[in-house]
Write a structure and sequence with these properties.
alpha+beta, Inorganic Pyrophosphatase, five-stranded mixed barrel, disordered C terminus
């Protein structure tokens, strides 16, 4: 699979407002407002035409030197991901992996091809964000392990669904 993907931004970096794409209305809806002090560290979006373990399109955090806006489509280079087991409020557990990418137009991250090339502490801080984000929503998140870009591509390839019904 090509490591260059098209991602749609749901929630811009720095935002305390969490937006969700609703395929039935073909629009974005404000889902929640996070507590003071908790904002998305980078743009957060999804890969159209995929279906993750939680039934939604696959989540991608776009690590970049600039935020974009809700609805922005952006070409990114996949650099890896983390396998996640998420416990919902009702006690059920679901895999809800997170993937990481950098914009193809990025200057700061132009040479980043794998997670290990990110600045020291960056990935740990992002993982802590996901843990805190889920805690405030009454969910528990367990990070199982990291995956390199090749393993991430394989999981995304396995999650592809019929694009005709899911495309923006």
């Amino acid at each position: 699979m090509e490591r260059i993907l098209d991602v749609v931004v749901e929630t811009p970096g720095g935002s305390r407002q969490k937006f969700d794409w609703e395929s039935e209305t073909r629009s974005f809806r404000l889902n929640k407002i996070m507590p003071l002090g908790l904002g998305f560290p980078y743009d957060f979006g999804f890969i159209p035409g995929t279906c993750g373990g939680d039934g939604d399109p696959i989540d991608v955090m776009i690590i970049s030197e600039f935020p974009t806006f809700t609805g922005c489509r952006i070409h990114v280079r996949l650099i890896g991901g983390v396998r996640i087991l998420q416990q919902e409020r009702d006690g059920s557990k679901v895999r809800n992996d997170r993937f990481f990418a950098v914009p193809e137009v990025s200057q700061l991250y132009a040479n980043v091809e794998e997670l290990q090339q990110l600045p020291e502490g960056c990935l740990q801080q992002i993982q802590q964000f996901f843990i805190s984000y889920n805690e405030q929503a009454g969910k528990e998140l367990q990070i199982l392990d990291q995956m390199d870009a090749e393993a991430a591509c394989k999981l995304i390839r396995e999650s592809l669904v019929d694009l005709k019904s899911k495309e923006l």
